[in-house]
Each structure stands twice: as C-alpha cells, then as structure tokens.
Amino acid sequence: MQQFIDSRYMLYLVFLLAIWGFWSLPLYDIDEGAFTEATREMIETGNYISIYLNGEPRNDKPILIYWLQAASVHAFGLNEFSLRLPSVVMFAFWIFIVFRFTLYERDEQTAHVATLLLVLSFYISLIAKAAIADALLHVFLVLTLFDIYRYSQSEDQARLKKIFIWMGLGFLTKGPVAIVLPAIISLIFYGTYSRWKDWLKAITYVKGWMIFILIVLPWHIALYLDSGWQFFQGFYLEHNVGRYAGAMEGHGGGWYYYLLAAPLIIMPFGGWLISVISPSRIWQSSFSRFAWIWFLTTLIIFSMGNTKLPHYLLYGMTGLFVWMAMERDRLNKGRWEIFAAIAFLLGLGSLPWVFEYISGNSSRVFEATAAREISQSLFGGGNFIIAIFIAIALISLALKIRASSKLIWIGFVQLAMISVVLLPSVFVGLQDGPKEAGIKAKQLGKDLISYGVYQPSLSVYAEQIVERKEPKKSELVYVRVDKKNEFEKKFESMNPRLVYYKGIANLYEVNSELKP
C-alpha cells in the first residue's frame, strides 16, 4: 500500500479522477457559460481581436484563453470536450511543473507527494477542468515564480528572459496580476537577504521588458484599432482597480476571509498545513522562506481587497504544496489532522440529506427545485456509492502507513467521491435542464430569448445570442422555474405554450405556431 501511494501510478490515477467527466458534464453558469459563449461568438463573427458576449463587449479577461478555446473548437467541434480541453492540458502542465521543480529541489518521492497535494486539494479539483482562465493563469504564475526562485539562487540571463516570457503570457491571460504578484513577492524575498541591488538589476532588465512588450503589445494595438478604448477602460479600471476597491457581484468578506478559507480549500490537507507551521522552519531554508513569502503576500494583498473569491488564494498555494511535501515527516501520528480530514469527508457524504432537506424546506422555488433534482440523482444509488467511499477512507485508519500517506489516501477517496458522484449530480440539478433547453431551441430553429435570468450557457447550446428582453411572436423563451408563474401571468395574452421542461428549466413558445 505504501509503495502504491508513493508511486507515479497513484499520480496518474489521481489525475484521471480530477479530470473525469470534463468531456460530458454540461457547462456551468455563469463563469463557464460566459467564457465559452464569448469564444463561440468569436468563431461565429471571425473577430479574434475584440471579445463579445451576447453581442456586447466583454471586458473581464484578456484574449489568450479565448484563442486557445477557439483553436480547440476548430479542431474538435463545439462541445464540452473542446471547450474544456485547454484547461485540462494546462492543468497537466501545472502538475508537471510542480513535479519537475520539486524533483530538482529535493527527490522523486517528495515530488510525488507535492503533486498529489496539488491535485487532491478540494478546490483545485473543482476548477481544474473548468473552461475558464484559472488553470492557464496558474501555469504562467507558477513558471514565473519558480524561475524567480531559481534565478535568485543562480543568476542566469536565459532564465531571466523566461521570466519575462511567462509574465507576458500571464498578462495576456489575466492582466496585471501576472506582474504585480511576482514583483512584490520577489522584492520581499530579495529584501530579506538585503539583496536590493540584485532585485533592481533583474527588474530593470531591458531585454526582458522588450520581450514582454513584444508578447503583450501587438494584441493591445489591434484591440485599440478594432474597438477603441472600451476594453482598456472596462478591464483595467473596472475589473482590476474596481474589483480591488469594491466588492463586485456580491463577492465580499472580512479581512479574515482567507485565513478561514485557506485550510478549507485545500482539504483534506488543512490540518497538515497547520500542524507543520513553525516560525523556525519557515525561515530555515531559502525555498521555505520563498514559499511562505509567496503565500503570505498573496494572502495579504487579496485580504486587503474588497472582492473576495476562494480561488484568489490559490495563486499563493503552489509553493506551499511543495513545502508541505518537504515537511511531511513532521506530521508524526497526525491524529487530529486525520480526524479533521475524515470529518470533512463525512460532511461531503452528508450532502444527499442536505439537498433533500433543502428541497422540502426551502421557500425559494429555484433552490428547492435544484435541490430536489440533485437529491433524486444522489439517492438513485449515489448515496450507496458515497457510503462505500467513506468506508474505504476509514480503512486507512487501520493501515500501518505514514500519517501523510493516510491523508493522501483520504484525499484520493474525497476526489473520487466528488468526481464520480457529487459533481455529476450537482450538474444534473443545475445545468442539465438549461443545456437541453438550448439544444431543443437549436433543433426547433427559432430565435431564443431569456426571461428574467442570465444563463450564458444557453447561448452555447442554442448556438445563438440569447438576450433578456420582452418576447415577440413565435419566439422561444427560456424561463427559469422561479420565474414561471410570473411569466405565464404577465404574457397570458400571448398564449405561451410549454414546449420543454426539465428541473429548473422551462422553454416556452409565445403565440405558438408549433404543432402540439
């Protein structure tokens, strides 16, 4: 058992579990729907410079993820597989980068553990295969910061040039964060050794900035020529300065938000992280110092901002996974750490009953309907599979293996439970209906609009722009279940006829001309 956990075969199996279902799970709203619909419109219009969503400028992110998704769609068609493939490939690169760096810094066993910590962490397993920009950004951030560390140990102009390449590509992925975080982290790290001149020399490397400009500037020039200043104002002012200065889209939280979130988003390894923290150990080696400066800088910067999302903290976690792997022998018996991991697993295992309770007790129609669909899926055999997974996790308590290996085993079970049972069931409740409604609209060949809700994945599946507006004769109207009574009453005179429904999704035709 110990040999299997320490082997590369365990890593291969874990990676497969992490990406399981990426080719078939429906796109989730709003994030995946927005990214992928913008990509679909890019392909449809032939405009590969400016980004549009539902025919309106989308200023959320730069261009690189859309180019990669568009290339994948051209190769494999418009489907979940092609839209998520760039993220899956980038996730594989992320794992490979961590493995190679840790192998270089320590040994193969430590490299296996570091990559397993990365892949098995709760929140990473949720975003790894998503058709959004995060996996791509992490690749370039991790490449940048690992190369900054290596450059600090042995100055090499070739490596310094690579740093500027990674920052340029990161900038095309998500903007200023690809420069700001590495600059501050490296400044603090160099400062702890009083190497201010070395840092200044690296940061003012002219050839590096020329490389960066050659990567970033062409698209910005083309963008300005195509659509003027609107992206620059929307992205750099609203979505960067504005997101930091004020909470956007209700994503707020106190200064302590990330302190509480850090152990949870990397479960089942939250106890592992807490138990190996020691001021003397943090400062003991150059890499441990770098990893903690990386994490704490990210923690402080995003804690000071008003918009708070869990995945922001992940920008600072990769170095900690490597450090935690290096410190694994300090877990000792790890009793409370294992108890915390089991408790979290049991919490996930209780979700069928949680959703069942919500379905019968929530006064909100949307929540109750979605919860009912999810609980029905889970109780259709899913709860039995969950019980088996939990039993397998509990077996690890009796195994005579290291505490770190027990936590990895629990993480393996947790990932299997999420990928095989929980995630597919949640997607059934939330996204199967909208997906099939969009496909139905495409089959009927009629214009589709949306009443009162914004679900951009509809546009992807219907392969048309879906606007929120008043319906016209013979149009199809997507109506979410919580808007159904309101819609039928408001447009009663237009004889709305229900042509499709499933879960939260309802599809009507007004002034129906379709045969019953």
Account of the protein in words:
The protein is mainly alpha-helical. The protein folds into three domains: 2-329, no CATH class; 336-398 and 420-432, no CATH class; 437-509. It is 68% helix and 5% strand. The chain has helices at residues 2-5, 8-18, 31-45, 64-76, 80-105, 108-120, 122-127, 134-153, 157-174, 177-192, 196-203, 206-227, 230-245, 257-265, 270-275, 279-282, 286-304, 310-314, 318-326, 335-349, 351-361, 365-395, 403-444, 457-462, 484-490; strands at 52-53, 56-57, 448-451, 467-468, 476-480, 497-502, 505-509. The strands form two sheets. It has a five-stranded mixed sheet, covered by helices on one side. It has a two-stranded antiparallel ribbon with strand order 1-2. 46% of the residues are buried.
The overall number of domains is: 3
Shape: globular
Strand content: 5-15%
- Count of helical stretches: 25
Could you name the ranges where pLDDT drops below 50 across 5 or more consecutive residues?
A: 246-252
End-to-end CA span: 61 Å
Helix content: 55-70%
Radius of gyration: 24 Å
Largest sheet: 5 strands, mixed
The total strand number stands at: 7
Q: How is the largest sheet built, in terms of strand order?
A: 4-3-5-7-6
Q: Which class of secondary structure composition applies to the elements?
A: mainly alpha
Notable characteristics:
mainly alpha, 7 strands, 516 residues, five-stranded mixed β-sheet, two-stranded antiparallel sheet, 3 domains, globular
Q: Would you spell out the secondary-structure blueprint of this structure?
A:
Layout lengths: L1 H4 L2 H11 L12 H15 L6 E2 L2 E2 L6 H13 L3 H26 L2 H13 L1 H6 L6 H20 L3 H18 L2 H16 L3 H8 L2 H22 L2 H16 L11 H9 L4 H6 L3 H4 L3 H19 L5 H5 L3 H9 L8 H15 L1 H11 L3 H31 L7 H42 L3 E4 L5 H6 L4 E2 L7 E5 L3 H7 L6 E6 L2 E5 L7
Parallel strand pairs: 3-4, 3-5
Antiparallel strand pairs: 1-2, 5-7, 6-7
Helix pairs in contact: 2-6, 3-4, 4-5, 5-6, 5-8, 6-19, 6-23, 8-9, 8-10, 9-12, 10-11, 10-17, 17-19, 20-22, 20-23, 21-22, 22-23
